[in-house]
Amino acid sequence: MEFKLKTLTPIWTGGVRRNDNSILHLTGIKGSLRWWYESLIRGLNGYACDPSNDDKRCVLELKEFEKIRHGGKTKEEALNLLICPACQMFGCTNWGSKFILRIDDNSRSVITSMVKRGDPFTLKFIEKKVFTPYEKKLLHATIKLIVEYGAIGGKTVLKPSEVPNKNCENYSKHNHVDYGLLDYQNISIASNRPSVFTYKLKQNETDWPNLCNFWFVKGAYINRKEHNALVARQSANPKFYEKSATESNLFRGGYIKDNNGCRIIPNDLQPTVENRNLQSSGESKKIFSFHGLTHCDKSRDCVKQDFPPRCFGYGRGATERDNSKNEIERILNGKSIRYEMKTGQEVLDEL
Ligand SMILES: [Zn+2]
Question: Ligand 1 centroid vs 26 CA: distance in angstroms?
Answer without folding.
Answer: 20
